[in-house]
Design a protein that fits this description.
The chain is α/β, with parallel strands linked by helices and 309 residues long. The chain has a single domain (5-308), classed as Aldolase class I (TIM Barrel). It is built from 13 helices and eight strands. It has an eight-stranded parallel β-sheet. The protein binds zinc ion.
Length: 309
């Protein structure tokens, strides 16, 4: 039994900012390695137009491979109906549809208003519900820039809550609340997640944090206080911001697993195996900055024995 779910997003969030094409075999090996380390959900790719993000030109092949890994929930990001339908046809288990709470960020990202993106989400839910039983993926609504935006600065908590309620009413099976640019702090995180939970009731909510300003794990702790039990993270903290060279990206999977396990919260993930995957991925991405402390410092003496699976 797992106390806290840790989901890998480096294969999507991390790779989308890597400026060269990472070989398909490497992406497959990454998924295999993490699944063997006990990670039970991976966002393996993004179904964006290949013109915009050539990194994911091999999405179909990566998904096909990930679907062979036993016990793994295969998730993919889709920015629109077209991408979501392609992901459904390929049999992904879960579709993470992302819209930005910040109007300006949404327009910059997908050239549509937030309202138009919500209408698109409604069509994705309808499309999924129209599929035969057993072939319906879980449909997730991701709310990006929920704790701040590089264009607008502050994002109003009321607006995040209103959009969360709208996508929940539209039929979201799960929500992801994302601090896409690392603007959040623990007080804001605790308040926002508690508020959304009370607004949407039973729908599972996952947190997606970036460590851009060093508050990533502090924000995890605040979200745990608000009863959040699922987190996205990226191996080696990959996924920095293209506008802030060298800045750290997503919270680091190894460090997050370490913190949770050290606190007595079971993740089902073997940190040593995770570090071995990190080394393998790092060899393929030599010039990319890898973050995180556990892979560098090693586990504290006595830790491995106490937390052996
Ligand atoms: Zn992210």
């Amino acid at each position: 039994m797992v106390d806290v779910h840790v989901h890998e997003v480096g294969t999507r969030d991390g790779l989308q900012s890597v400026p060269f094409f990472v070989p398909t075999e490497m992406k497959k090996a990454w998924c295999t390695g993490e699944a063997e380390a006990g990670v039970h959900e991976i966002e393996v790719c993004s179904f964006v137009p290949v013109k915009l993000l050539p990194q994911f030109a091999d999405a179909a092949e990566v998904v096909a491979h990930a679907l062979t890994l036993e016990g793994l929930t295969v998730a993919a990001l889709a920015p629109n109906l077209k991408g979501a339908e392609r992901a459904m046809q390929l049999g992904v288990h879960k579709i993470n549809y992302v819209l930005s709470v910040s109007e300006s960020h949404n327009r910059a990202n997908v050239r549509r208003s937030t309202d138009e993106s919500i209408e698109d989400f409604v069509r994705i839910v309808e499309s999924a519900r129209g599929r035969p039983e057993g072939q319906r993926p879980i449909i997730v609504a991701g709310l990006a820039t929920a704790l701040g935006c590089t264009i607008e600065g502050n994002v109003s908590e009321d607006r995040v809550r209103q959009i969360a309620v709208r996508v929940a009413a539209a039929g979201a099976d799960e929500l992801i609340v994302a601090d896409t640019v690392g603007y959040g702090n623990p007080a804001a995180v605790r308040r926002l997640f508690r508020a959304i939970k009370s607004d949407v009731g039973e729908i599972p909510i996952k947190a997606h944090f970036h460590d851009t300003r060093g508050l990533g794990l502090a924000n995890v702790l605040a979200a745990l206080d608000a009863d959040v039990r699922a987190f996205d993270a990226s191996l080696g903290g990959l996924g920095g911001c293209p506008y802030a060279p060298g800045a750290s990206g997503n919270i680091c999977t190894e460090d997050l697993v370490f913190m949770l396990e050290a606190m007595g919260l079971k993740t089902g993930i073997d940190i040593q195996k995770l570090i071995a995957v990190r080394q393998q991925v790092q060899q393929a991405l030599t010039d990319q900055p890898f973050h995180g402390t556990i892979a560098k410092a090693g586990l504290p003496r006595g830790f491995a024995l106490a937390h052996a699976a």
